[in-house]
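Record type: monomer structure entry
Structure origin: computed from sequence
Chain ID: A
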Amino acid sequence: MNQQKLKSATQRRAHQGYTAGLIKKACSSAVVLYRECGRIVLALLLWTGTAQAQTKEDLIAASQAGASPLFFSVNAEKVPLVTTGNFSDPRECTVRNGLPNFFHKVRAGKPVTAGFIGGSITQGNACYRPQTAKYLQSMFPDVPLKAINAGVSGTGTDLGACRLRDQLLQYHPDLIFVEFAVNGAYAPGMEGIVRQIWQFDPEIDICLIYTINNGQTKIYAEGGIPANIQGLEKVAAHYGVPSVHLGLEASLLEKDGKLLWKHSGEAPGKIVFSHDGTHPVLAGGNLYAAAIARSMQQMKHTAEPVRHLLPPALHPGNWEDAAMFAPLDLATFKGGWQQAEPMKQFAPWFPYVMQAATPGASFTFRFSGTAFGLFTIGGPEAGQLRITVDGQPVSLTDSPLAGTRIFSAGEQPLLNLFNRYCSNRYRGQYDLVALEPGDHTVTIELSGEQADKAKILGPQQQGDISQHPEKYARTVVYLGKILLKGRRI
Protein backbone atom coordinates (compact mmCIF):
# COMPACT_ATOMS: atom_id res chain seq x y z
CA MET A 1 0.00 0.00 0.00
CA ASN A 2 1.50 3.37 -1.01
CA GLN A 3 1.72 6.38 1.30
CA GLN A 4 -1.50 8.08 0.12
CA LYS A 5 -3.55 4.88 0.29
CA LEU A 6 -2.25 4.16 3.78
CA LYS A 7 -3.19 7.65 4.90
CA SER A 8 -6.74 7.53 3.55
CA ALA A 9 -7.34 4.01 4.84
CA THR A 10 -6.28 5.01 8.33
CA GLN A 11 -8.48 8.08 8.22
CA ARG A 12 -11.48 5.94 7.24
CA ARG A 13 -10.82 3.65 10.19
CA ALA A 14 -10.68 6.61 12.53
CA HIS A 15 -14.01 7.93 11.27
CA GLN A 16 -15.57 4.51 11.66
CA GLY A 17 -14.43 4.31 15.29
CA TYR A 18 -12.29 1.20 14.80
CA THR A 19 -15.34 -1.05 14.71
CA ALA A 20 -15.13 -4.42 16.35
CA GLY A 21 -15.18 -6.24 13.03
CA LEU A 22 -12.20 -4.39 11.65
CA ILE A 23 -10.28 -4.75 14.86
CA LYS A 24 -10.89 -8.49 14.99
CA LYS A 25 -9.59 -8.77 11.42
CA ALA A 26 -6.36 -7.22 12.65
CA CYS A 27 -6.01 -10.28 14.94
CA SER A 28 -3.49 -8.58 17.16
CA SER A 29 -2.34 -5.19 18.35
CA ALA A 30 -0.31 -3.21 15.87
CA VAL A 31 1.23 0.19 15.55
CA VAL A 32 0.77 1.97 12.24
CA LEU A 33 2.83 5.06 11.52
CA TYR A 34 2.10 7.38 8.65
CA ARG A 35 3.02 10.92 7.70
CA GLU A 36 0.52 13.72 7.45
CA CYS A 37 1.53 17.30 6.64
CA GLY A 38 5.11 16.64 7.75
CA ARG A 39 4.10 15.16 11.13
CA ILE A 40 4.14 11.58 12.35
CA VAL A 41 0.69 10.31 13.32
CA LEU A 42 0.52 7.34 15.65
CA ALA A 43 -2.47 5.02 15.27
CA LEU A 44 -2.70 2.33 17.91
CA LEU A 45 -4.88 -0.51 16.66
CA LEU A 46 -6.06 -2.42 19.68
CA TRP A 47 -8.23 -5.52 19.86
CA THR A 48 -10.68 -4.78 22.64
CA GLY A 49 -13.56 -7.20 22.25
CA THR A 50 -17.21 -6.19 22.53
CA ALA A 51 -18.97 -9.09 24.22
CA GLN A 52 -19.86 -8.94 27.87
CA ALA A 53 -19.72 -5.14 28.11
CA GLN A 54 -20.01 -5.27 31.87
CA THR A 55 -16.81 -7.25 32.23
CA LYS A 56 -14.85 -6.01 29.22
CA GLU A 57 -15.60 -2.30 29.27
CA ASP A 58 -17.29 -1.19 32.46
CA LEU A 59 -14.82 -3.10 34.59
CA ILE A 60 -11.74 -0.99 34.20
CA ALA A 61 -9.61 -3.89 35.39
CA ALA A 62 -10.10 -5.36 31.91
CA SER A 63 -9.69 -2.13 29.96
CA GLN A 64 -7.23 0.11 31.76
CA ALA A 65 -5.33 0.83 28.57
CA GLY A 66 -6.46 4.37 27.79
CA ALA A 67 -8.28 7.50 28.80
CA SER A 68 -11.96 8.26 29.18
CA PRO A 69 -13.63 11.49 28.03
CA LEU A 70 -13.24 14.08 30.78
CA PHE A 71 -16.85 15.28 30.74
CA PHE A 72 -19.61 12.70 30.97
CA SER A 73 -23.41 12.69 31.03
CA VAL A 74 -25.12 12.85 34.42
CA ASN A 75 -28.35 11.42 33.02
CA ALA A 76 -27.24 8.45 30.94
CA GLU A 77 -30.19 6.11 30.47
CA LYS A 78 -28.26 2.92 31.26
CA VAL A 79 -27.09 4.31 34.61
CA PRO A 80 -29.45 3.34 37.45
CA LEU A 81 -30.70 5.95 39.90
CA VAL A 82 -29.61 4.65 43.29
CA THR A 83 -31.54 5.18 46.51
CA THR A 84 -30.23 5.73 50.00
CA GLY A 85 -31.69 2.40 51.11
CA ASN A 86 -32.21 1.41 54.73
CA PHE A 87 -28.59 0.97 55.78
CA SER A 88 -27.47 3.14 58.69
CA ASP A 89 -24.14 3.11 60.49
CA PRO A 90 -22.50 6.15 62.08
CA ARG A 91 -19.08 4.95 60.90
CA GLU A 92 -19.98 5.33 57.23
CA CYS A 93 -19.75 9.11 56.90
CA THR A 94 -17.85 11.69 58.92
CA VAL A 95 -19.37 15.05 57.96
CA ARG A 96 -16.80 17.39 59.54
CA ASN A 97 -17.20 20.75 57.75
CA GLY A 98 -19.41 19.27 55.05
CA LEU A 99 -19.86 20.63 51.52
CA PRO A 100 -21.25 24.09 52.29
CA ASN A 101 -20.33 25.93 49.11
CA PHE A 102 -21.64 23.23 46.79
CA PHE A 103 -24.99 23.03 48.56
CA HIS A 104 -25.25 26.83 48.79
CA LYS A 105 -24.88 27.09 45.01
CA VAL A 106 -27.35 24.35 44.13
CA ARG A 107 -29.93 25.70 46.59
CA ALA A 108 -29.59 29.03 44.81
CA GLY A 109 -30.17 27.31 41.46
CA LYS A 110 -26.68 28.12 40.14
CA PRO A 111 -24.89 25.78 37.69
CA VAL A 112 -22.31 23.52 39.31
CA THR A 113 -19.55 21.14 38.28
CA ALA A 114 -18.63 17.98 40.17
CA GLY A 115 -15.22 16.43 39.61
CA PHE A 116 -14.17 12.84 40.32
CA ILE A 117 -10.47 12.00 40.62
CA GLY A 118 -9.03 8.61 41.45
CA GLY A 119 -7.88 5.34 39.96
CA SER A 120 -9.64 2.62 38.00
CA ILE A 121 -12.68 2.50 40.28
CA THR A 122 -13.31 6.16 39.45
CA GLN A 123 -12.57 5.75 35.76
CA GLY A 124 -14.84 2.72 35.43
CA ASN A 125 -18.33 3.04 33.99
CA ALA A 126 -20.19 1.11 36.68
CA CYS A 127 -18.08 1.36 39.82
CA TYR A 128 -19.79 4.36 41.52
CA ARG A 129 -19.09 7.56 39.57
CA PRO A 130 -21.95 7.64 37.02
CA GLN A 131 -24.48 6.55 39.65
CA THR A 132 -23.25 9.26 42.04
CA ALA A 133 -23.48 11.99 39.42
CA LYS A 134 -27.00 10.90 38.51
CA TYR A 135 -28.03 10.95 42.16
CA LEU A 136 -26.62 14.46 42.64
CA GLN A 137 -28.64 15.63 39.65
CA SER A 138 -31.77 13.97 41.04
CA MET A 139 -31.38 15.90 44.28
CA PHE A 140 -31.58 19.17 42.35
CA PRO A 141 -33.16 18.32 38.98
CA ASP A 142 -33.49 21.94 37.85
CA VAL A 143 -29.84 22.84 38.48
CA PRO A 144 -27.44 22.45 35.54
CA LEU A 145 -24.80 19.93 36.61
CA LYS A 146 -21.61 19.06 34.74
CA ALA A 147 -19.42 16.13 35.76
CA ILE A 148 -15.74 15.36 35.11
CA ASN A 149 -14.13 11.92 35.07
CA ALA A 150 -10.47 12.39 36.07
CA GLY A 151 -9.96 8.73 36.90
CA VAL A 152 -6.76 7.14 35.61
CA SER A 153 -6.49 3.41 36.07
CA GLY A 154 -3.64 1.96 38.06
CA THR A 155 -2.49 5.29 39.47
CA GLY A 156 -2.23 6.78 42.94
CA THR A 157 -2.13 10.13 44.67
CA ASP A 158 1.40 10.83 43.42
CA LEU A 159 0.26 11.06 39.79
CA GLY A 160 -3.09 12.45 40.96
CA ALA A 161 -1.33 15.44 42.52
CA CYS A 162 0.63 15.99 39.30
CA ARG A 163 -2.40 15.95 36.98
CA LEU A 164 -4.91 17.73 39.25
CA ARG A 165 -4.64 21.17 37.66
CA ASP A 166 -4.56 19.88 34.10
CA GLN A 167 -7.49 17.49 34.34
CA LEU A 168 -9.70 19.11 36.99
CA LEU A 169 -8.87 22.52 38.40
CA GLN A 170 -8.74 24.35 35.08
CA TYR A 171 -12.47 23.59 34.72
CA HIS A 172 -13.27 25.25 38.08
CA PRO A 173 -15.25 22.46 39.75
CA ASP A 174 -17.43 23.26 42.76
CA LEU A 175 -17.09 19.83 44.36
CA ILE A 176 -14.33 17.21 44.04
CA PHE A 177 -14.63 13.58 45.12
CA VAL A 178 -11.18 12.03 45.70
CA GLU A 179 -10.82 8.22 45.50
CA PHE A 180 -7.37 6.65 45.87
CA ALA A 181 -7.68 4.25 48.80
CA VAL A 182 -7.02 1.06 46.82
CA ASN A 183 -4.22 2.62 44.76
CA GLY A 184 -1.60 3.00 47.45
CA ALA A 185 -3.39 5.50 49.71
CA TYR A 186 -0.19 7.57 49.79
CA ALA A 187 -1.06 10.22 52.38
CA PRO A 188 1.50 12.91 51.38
CA GLY A 189 0.05 12.77 47.88
CA MET A 190 -3.50 13.07 49.22
CA GLU A 191 -2.52 16.07 51.32
CA GLY A 192 -0.93 17.63 48.25
CA ILE A 193 -4.21 17.21 46.38
CA VAL A 194 -6.20 18.91 49.15
CA ARG A 195 -3.74 21.78 49.47
CA GLN A 196 -3.54 22.34 45.71
CA ILE A 197 -7.32 22.53 45.45
CA TRP A 198 -7.67 25.19 48.12
CA GLN A 199 -4.65 27.14 46.92
CA PHE A 200 -6.36 27.27 43.53
CA ASP A 201 -9.78 28.16 44.93
CA PRO A 202 -10.63 28.02 48.66
CA GLU A 203 -14.34 27.77 47.84
CA ILE A 204 -14.09 24.35 46.21
CA ASP A 205 -15.53 21.63 48.46
CA ILE A 206 -13.75 18.28 48.83
CA CYS A 207 -15.02 14.84 49.83
CA LEU A 208 -12.67 11.90 50.37
CA ILE A 209 -14.19 8.53 49.47
CA TYR A 210 -12.66 5.21 50.52
CA THR A 211 -12.99 2.11 48.37
CA ILE A 212 -11.56 -1.23 49.50
CA ASN A 213 -9.82 -4.34 48.20
CA ASN A 214 -10.52 -8.02 48.59
CA GLY A 215 -9.91 -9.04 52.22
CA GLN A 216 -10.55 -5.63 53.77
CA THR A 217 -14.25 -6.36 54.26
CA LYS A 218 -13.33 -8.44 57.32
CA ILE A 219 -11.63 -5.43 58.91
CA TYR A 220 -14.82 -3.37 58.59
CA ALA A 221 -16.99 -6.28 59.71
CA GLU A 222 -14.93 -6.59 62.89
CA GLY A 223 -15.30 -2.88 63.68
CA GLY A 224 -11.94 -1.68 62.37
CA ILE A 225 -10.67 0.56 59.56
CA PRO A 226 -8.06 -0.65 57.04
CA ALA A 227 -4.59 0.70 57.81
CA ASN A 228 -4.19 2.45 54.47
CA ILE A 229 -7.45 4.33 55.01
CA GLN A 230 -6.40 5.39 58.49
CA GLY A 231 -3.63 7.48 56.95
CA LEU A 232 -6.09 9.19 54.63
CA GLU A 233 -8.47 9.81 57.53
CA LYS A 234 -5.73 11.76 59.31
CA VAL A 235 -5.56 14.05 56.27
CA ALA A 236 -9.36 14.42 56.19
CA ALA A 237 -9.50 15.26 59.89
CA HIS A 238 -6.62 17.73 59.66
CA TYR A 239 -8.39 19.71 56.94
CA GLY A 240 -11.96 19.21 58.13
CA VAL A 241 -13.12 17.59 54.88
CA PRO A 242 -15.87 14.96 54.91
CA SER A 243 -15.07 11.33 54.24
CA VAL A 244 -17.17 8.32 53.29
CA HIS A 245 -16.35 4.62 53.78
CA LEU A 246 -17.96 3.21 50.66
CA GLY A 247 -17.36 -0.45 51.54
CA LEU A 248 -18.95 -0.58 54.97
CA GLU A 249 -22.42 -1.74 53.92
CA ALA A 250 -21.01 -4.37 51.56
CA SER A 251 -18.72 -5.63 54.33
CA LEU A 252 -21.63 -6.17 56.71
CA LEU A 253 -23.77 -7.77 54.01
CA GLU A 254 -20.94 -10.19 53.32
CA LYS A 255 -20.67 -10.96 57.05
CA ASP A 256 -24.39 -11.80 57.06
CA GLY A 257 -24.02 -14.11 54.07
CA LYS A 258 -25.98 -11.84 51.73
CA LEU A 259 -23.13 -10.72 49.48
CA LEU A 260 -20.19 -12.29 47.65
CA TRP A 261 -17.32 -9.82 47.43
CA LYS A 262 -15.53 -11.75 44.68
CA HIS A 263 -17.45 -14.14 42.45
CA SER A 264 -17.30 -14.79 38.72
CA GLY A 265 -20.68 -16.41 38.13
CA GLU A 266 -24.31 -16.16 39.16
CA ALA A 267 -25.29 -16.36 42.82
CA PRO A 268 -29.09 -16.62 43.23
CA GLY A 269 -30.31 -14.80 46.31
CA LYS A 270 -27.02 -13.00 46.87
CA ILE A 271 -25.40 -9.79 45.68
CA VAL A 272 -22.25 -10.26 43.62
CA PHE A 273 -20.07 -7.27 44.39
CA SER A 274 -17.15 -7.85 42.01
CA HIS A 275 -15.55 -10.38 39.73
CA ASP A 276 -11.97 -9.55 40.68
CA GLY A 277 -12.12 -8.49 44.32
CA THR A 278 -11.58 -4.80 43.59
CA HIS A 279 -13.67 -3.35 40.76
CA PRO A 280 -17.42 -3.43 41.41
CA VAL A 281 -19.84 -4.80 38.88
CA LEU A 282 -23.02 -2.74 38.60
CA ALA A 283 -24.61 -4.12 41.80
CA GLY A 284 -21.45 -3.41 43.78
CA GLY A 285 -21.12 0.04 42.24
CA ASN A 286 -24.69 0.78 43.29
CA LEU A 287 -23.78 -0.04 46.89
CA TYR A 288 -20.78 2.31 46.71
CA ALA A 289 -22.94 5.08 45.22
CA ALA A 290 -25.68 4.54 47.80
CA ALA A 291 -23.13 5.25 50.55
CA ILE A 292 -22.37 8.58 48.88
CA ALA A 293 -26.09 9.26 48.47
CA ARG A 294 -26.68 8.76 52.20
CA SER A 295 -23.77 11.05 52.95
CA MET A 296 -25.15 13.75 50.67
CA GLN A 297 -28.38 13.64 52.61
CA GLN A 298 -26.44 14.20 55.83
CA MET A 299 -24.41 17.07 54.43
CA LYS A 300 -27.06 18.97 52.51
CA HIS A 301 -28.20 20.85 55.61
CA THR A 302 -24.94 22.82 55.84
CA ALA A 303 -25.16 25.42 53.08
CA GLU A 304 -23.57 28.63 54.35
CA PRO A 305 -20.68 29.60 52.03
CA VAL A 306 -17.15 29.59 53.45
CA ARG A 307 -13.57 30.06 52.30
CA HIS A 308 -11.65 26.98 53.36
CA LEU A 309 -8.48 27.81 55.27
CA LEU A 310 -5.21 25.91 54.95
CA PRO A 311 -3.67 24.88 58.26
CA PRO A 312 0.05 24.06 58.53
CA ALA A 313 0.92 20.96 56.54
CA LEU A 314 0.52 17.57 58.18
CA HIS A 315 3.26 16.06 55.96
CA PRO A 316 6.08 18.57 55.27
CA GLY A 317 7.02 16.69 52.09
CA ASN A 318 3.48 16.62 50.70
CA TRP A 319 2.76 17.00 46.98
CA GLU A 320 1.23 20.47 46.88
CA ASP A 321 3.97 21.55 44.44
CA ALA A 322 3.30 18.77 41.92
CA ALA A 323 2.31 19.42 38.30
CA MET A 324 2.66 18.01 34.79
CA PHE A 325 3.77 19.64 31.56
CA ALA A 326 3.49 19.02 27.85
CA PRO A 327 6.91 17.77 26.71
CA LEU A 328 7.73 20.64 24.35
CA ASP A 329 6.76 23.20 27.00
CA LEU A 330 9.53 22.01 29.30
CA ALA A 331 12.21 20.01 27.48
CA THR A 332 14.52 20.19 24.48
CA PHE A 333 14.76 17.07 22.32
CA LYS A 334 17.49 15.74 20.06
CA GLY A 335 18.36 12.60 18.16
CA GLY A 336 15.35 11.28 16.26
CA TRP A 337 12.31 12.43 18.25
CA GLN A 338 9.06 13.03 16.42
CA GLN A 339 5.87 14.76 17.55
CA ALA A 340 3.10 12.17 17.29
CA GLU A 341 -0.67 12.46 17.53
CA PRO A 342 -2.01 9.64 19.71
CA MET A 343 -5.16 7.85 18.70
CA LYS A 344 -8.45 8.85 20.27
CA GLN A 345 -7.85 6.42 23.13
CA PHE A 346 -5.23 8.71 24.70
CA ALA A 347 -6.37 12.14 23.51
CA PRO A 348 -8.01 13.22 26.80
CA TRP A 349 -4.60 12.92 28.45
CA PHE A 350 -2.13 13.74 25.69
CA PRO A 351 -2.79 16.28 22.91
CA TYR A 352 0.41 14.85 21.43
CA VAL A 353 3.24 12.54 22.40
CA MET A 354 6.94 12.74 21.68
CA GLN A 355 8.09 9.40 20.34
CA ALA A 356 11.51 7.97 19.57
CA ALA A 357 12.75 4.58 18.43
CA THR A 358 16.46 5.36 18.01
CA PRO A 359 18.78 4.49 20.89
CA GLY A 360 20.61 7.61 21.96
CA ALA A 361 17.63 9.91 21.39
CA SER A 362 17.44 12.19 24.42
CA PHE A 363 15.70 15.15 26.00
CA THR A 364 16.77 17.60 28.69
CA PHE A 365 14.89 19.87 31.11
CA ARG A 366 15.59 21.90 34.24
CA PHE A 367 13.57 22.25 37.42
CA SER A 368 13.86 23.07 41.09
CA GLY A 369 12.38 20.48 43.42
CA THR A 370 12.54 16.96 44.79
CA ALA A 371 11.15 14.60 42.10
CA PHE A 372 10.45 14.31 38.39
CA GLY A 373 8.66 11.72 36.32
CA LEU A 374 7.22 10.60 33.01
CA PHE A 375 3.60 9.91 32.03
CA THR A 376 3.95 7.60 29.03
CA ILE A 377 2.20 5.05 26.84
CA GLY A 378 3.43 1.55 27.51
CA GLY A 379 3.20 -1.28 25.02
CA PRO A 380 5.03 -4.31 23.59
CA GLU A 381 7.83 -2.14 22.21
CA ALA A 382 8.38 -0.07 25.38
CA GLY A 383 12.09 0.41 25.98
CA GLN A 384 14.45 1.41 28.74
CA LEU A 385 15.77 4.84 29.69
CA ARG A 386 19.11 6.05 30.97
CA ILE A 387 18.89 8.99 33.37
CA THR A 388 21.49 11.67 34.08
CA VAL A 389 20.94 14.31 36.75
CA ASP A 390 23.31 17.27 37.11
CA GLY A 391 25.85 15.51 34.93
CA GLN A 392 25.87 12.27 36.94
CA PRO A 393 24.27 8.95 35.92
CA VAL A 394 21.41 7.87 38.16
CA SER A 395 20.65 4.28 39.16
CA LEU A 396 17.33 3.34 40.75
CA THR A 397 15.84 0.89 43.23
CA ASP A 398 14.19 -2.30 41.98
CA SER A 399 10.78 -1.24 43.31
CA PRO A 400 9.14 2.10 44.11
CA LEU A 401 8.18 3.53 47.48
CA ALA A 402 5.16 1.65 48.84
CA GLY A 403 1.88 3.01 47.51
CA THR A 404 3.58 5.03 44.77
CA ARG A 405 5.58 4.87 41.56
CA ILE A 406 8.41 6.85 43.16
CA PHE A 407 11.88 5.35 42.69
CA SER A 408 14.93 6.43 44.66
CA ALA A 409 18.67 5.87 44.22
CA GLY A 410 19.61 2.20 43.93
CA GLU A 411 21.50 -0.31 41.79
CA GLN A 412 19.49 -0.46 38.56
CA PRO A 413 21.18 1.63 35.84
CA LEU A 414 18.07 1.86 33.63
CA LEU A 415 14.41 2.79 34.06
CA ASN A 416 12.43 0.03 32.34
CA LEU A 417 9.13 1.18 30.80
CA PHE A 418 8.03 -2.38 29.95
CA ASN A 419 5.93 -4.24 32.53
CA ARG A 420 3.50 -7.14 32.76
CA TYR A 421 0.60 -4.92 31.63
CA CYS A 422 2.28 -4.28 28.26
CA SER A 423 1.44 -7.66 26.73
CA ASN A 424 -0.42 -7.11 23.44
CA ARG A 425 -1.88 -3.79 24.62
CA TYR A 426 -1.15 -0.10 25.05
CA ARG A 427 -1.78 1.66 28.34
CA GLY A 428 -1.09 4.88 30.17
CA GLN A 429 1.58 4.50 32.86
CA TYR A 430 3.97 6.63 34.87
CA ASP A 431 7.23 6.56 36.82
CA LEU A 432 8.75 9.10 39.21
CA VAL A 433 12.30 9.60 40.47
CA ALA A 434 13.06 11.17 43.87
CA LEU A 435 15.99 13.58 44.20
CA GLU A 436 17.59 15.70 46.88
CA PRO A 437 16.05 19.21 47.06
CA GLY A 438 17.61 21.72 44.71
CA ASP A 439 17.96 22.96 41.14
CA HIS A 440 18.47 20.09 38.72
CA THR A 441 19.27 19.47 35.08
CA VAL A 442 17.81 16.16 33.92
CA THR A 443 18.72 14.32 30.71
CA ILE A 444 16.86 11.17 29.71
CA GLU A 445 18.16 8.96 26.90
CA LEU A 446 16.59 5.99 25.15
CA SER A 447 18.81 2.97 25.74
CA GLY A 448 19.45 0.25 23.20
CA GLU A 449 19.59 -2.41 25.91
CA GLN A 450 16.60 -4.75 25.87
CA ALA A 451 14.84 -5.88 29.01
CA ASP A 452 14.00 -9.59 29.35
CA LYS A 453 10.40 -9.06 28.31
CA ALA A 454 9.47 -12.75 28.26
CA LYS A 455 10.61 -13.09 31.87
CA ILE A 456 8.69 -9.97 32.91
CA LEU A 457 5.48 -11.31 31.33
CA GLY A 458 5.87 -14.68 33.02
CA PRO A 459 4.65 -18.10 31.91
CA GLN A 460 0.96 -17.08 31.66
CA GLN A 461 1.57 -14.35 29.06
CA GLN A 462 3.83 -15.98 26.49
CA GLY A 463 1.29 -16.27 23.66
CA ASP A 464 1.64 -12.90 21.96
CA ILE A 465 5.37 -12.49 22.49
CA SER A 466 5.92 -15.95 21.01
CA GLN A 467 3.70 -15.28 18.00
CA HIS A 468 4.89 -11.72 17.36
CA PRO A 469 8.44 -11.39 18.72
CA GLU A 470 9.13 -8.52 16.32
CA LYS A 471 6.81 -6.20 18.26
CA TYR A 472 8.64 -6.84 21.52
CA ALA A 473 12.11 -6.60 19.93
CA ARG A 474 11.62 -2.89 19.20
CA THR A 475 12.76 -0.18 21.61
CA VAL A 476 10.39 2.79 21.66
CA VAL A 477 9.23 5.49 24.08
CA TYR A 478 5.97 7.45 23.80
CA LEU A 479 6.19 10.46 26.13
CA GLY A 480 2.89 12.20 26.95
CA LYS A 481 3.72 14.45 29.92
CA ILE A 482 6.68 15.35 32.11
CA LEU A 483 5.88 15.30 35.83
CA LEU A 484 7.48 17.60 38.39
CA LYS A 485 7.40 17.88 42.14
CA GLY A 486 8.72 21.38 42.28
CA ARG A 487 8.83 24.20 39.74
CA ARG A 488 10.24 24.70 36.29
CA ILE A 489 13.27 26.97 35.90
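Annotation 1: DSSP finds 16 helices and 22 strands in the chain.
Annotation 2: The first strand starts at residue 30 and ends at 36.
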